């Protein structure tokens, strides 16, 4: 049997009054008496009536729906960002539609075409690792769709950006390794064109240079799908451990790459931290319970989500075109545990 929602016609039929009277009563119109409103509302509750969101969106010219596009919901960082978005969106009367690109440019384009066809009010996005061409986003943006970028951002559109201090985060992680006696520090990172990659690699290189050493490009391995494919991470790690001068420490510049490096080292029987130190960006709740416990750079993911939705709703609900935009940079936290402590 096909589900059929209760409509104002059903309420009107139940009460023996016109649909226009029911409609006005539900809108709390001054034209309808308090007694009639009471009767209509009681009947609506008895019949389990809920307003039709499509009809409301046509009337208000707003769907009250926000789209969020991330690479992978299973990634703890992105799931925490989504929780932050939802914590505010639902209280403001907006629904959140979540889509995953799985680090695919083609999938991202397809998802955005579908979401745009659903008349979303705004978009919060962290672009996929394959995304270099922003034309699909520019088309939506210049047609008037409010967009907020977070984490992996684009500066090709004049809009709000929410990120962490990527440069200093990678810098302090590298300095931590240097101060703990590690000499040959490698890093695993995402696609070279991503904003987070450029900023984090710059921080890593500056820390190496400040220590008086030269940067060895062979110690930097780019994973174009950000660790989503395990074989990609394994290939990069194999190349590192087979270098003539094998690194004695690894920095993972994203969540998946950090945990992928840990899995590889344990599988190879390489002792952490005695043979190889390991630190990386991670928001996984399990990192302190691993053996060894994992030193991490933790990002304020929940706060990033809250900030992104607040900025987006300010644009959506503004009575005038917004012309000033925020580049919001949040601080990260360095958490030192056993995986970088050689004295353990």
From TrEMBL:
Gene3D superfamilies: 3.40.50.2300, lambda repressor-like DNA-binding domains (1.10.260.40)
UniProt-listed Pfam families: LacI, Peripla_BP_1
UniProt-listed InterPro entries: HTH_LacI, Lambda_DNA-bd_dom_sf, Peripla_BP/Lac1_sug-bd_dom, Peripla_BP_I
Alphabetic keyword roster: DNA-binding, Transcription, Transcription regulation
Span of domain HTH lacI-type: 6-60
GO molecular function: DNA-binding transcription factor activity; transcription cis-regulatory region binding
PANTHER family (alphabetical): HTH-TYPE TRANSCRIPTIONAL REGULATOR GALS, LACI-RELATED TRANSCRIPTIONAL REPRESSOR
Name of the protein this chain belongs to: LacI family transcriptional regulator
Organism: Segetibacter aerophilus
């Amino acid at each position: 049997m096909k589900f059929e929602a209760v409509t104002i016609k059903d309420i009107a039929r139940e009460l023996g009054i016109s649909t226009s009277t029911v409609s006005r009563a539900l809108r709390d119109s001054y034209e309808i008496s308090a007694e009639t409103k009471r009767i209509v509302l009681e009947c609506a509750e008895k019949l389990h009536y809920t307003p039709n969101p499509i009809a409301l969106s046509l009337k208000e010219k707003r769907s009250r729906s926000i789209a969020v596009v991330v690479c992978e919901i299973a990634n703890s960082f992105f799931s925490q960002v989504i929780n932050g978005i939802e914590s505010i969106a639902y209280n403001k009367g907006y629904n959140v539609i979540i889509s995953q690109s799985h680090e695919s440019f083609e999938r991202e384009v397809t998802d955005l075409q579908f979401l745009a066809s659903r008349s979303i009010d705004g978009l919060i996005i962290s672009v996929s690792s394959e995304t270099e061409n922003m034309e699909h986003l520019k088309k939506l943006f210049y047609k008037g769709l409010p967009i907020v970028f977070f984490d992996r951002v684009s500066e090709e559109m004049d809009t709000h950006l929410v990120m962490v201090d990527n440069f200093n985060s990678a810098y302090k992680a590298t300095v931590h390794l240097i101060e703990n006696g590690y000499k040959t520090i490698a890093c695993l990172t995402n696609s070279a064109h991503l904003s987070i990659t450029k900023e984090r690699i710059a921080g890593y290189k500056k820390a190496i240079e400040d220590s008086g050493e030269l940067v060895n490009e062979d110690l930097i391995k780019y994973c174009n799908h950000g660790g989503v494919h395990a074989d990609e991470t394994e290939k990069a790690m194999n190349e590192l451990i087979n270098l003539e001068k094998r690194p004695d420490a690894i920095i993972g510049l994203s969540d998946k790459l950090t945990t992928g490096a840990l899995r590889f080292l344990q599988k190879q029987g390489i002792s952490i931290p005695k043979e190889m130190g390991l630190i990386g960006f991670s928001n996984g709740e399990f990192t302190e319970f691993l053996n060894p416990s994992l030193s991490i750079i933790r990002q304020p993911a929940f706060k990033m989500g809250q900030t992104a939705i607040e900025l987006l709703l300010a644009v959506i609900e503004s009575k005038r075109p917004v012309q000033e935009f925020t580049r919001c940079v949040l601080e990260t936290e360095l958490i030192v545990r056993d995986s970088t402590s050689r004295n353990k």
